[in-house]
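fyi for ur records
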Amino acid sequence: MNRFSTKINDWSIKSKLTMIIILTSLTVLLSLFLVFSLTQRNFLRNALLQELQILAQDLSGNCAATLIFDDTQTASDILRTLRAKPQIINSSIYGKDKLLFAQYEKRALLPQPDHPCQQSSALDIFSPLDI
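which gave:
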């Protein structure tokens, strides 16, 4: 019989208690890590959502005059300022008739997912104007 293959019943009380404490500590640490990770994920997602909503409100205020004066070039220029935000790949302005007025789209091609379950998530934020 190998000297490393001993049964738990043959362990001393001190060894059993040490193993119980180690396993309990590992379980608590793993649980805390899981809770912390989920909390941080939700916090970061909410912060990103709030940042994008503020950006949409600012852009809607800046583009109000372009809609009134039917100036698509200036609206496109305003939307092009979104190049500074790498997470924004597409932004559009629609008029009261719900037709596309101006659009910004990043030129870089996005990698296509190999599997349908690997779809990237998208977030649509709408900021209506009351003109």
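The chain has one domain: 12-110. thats all i got for now
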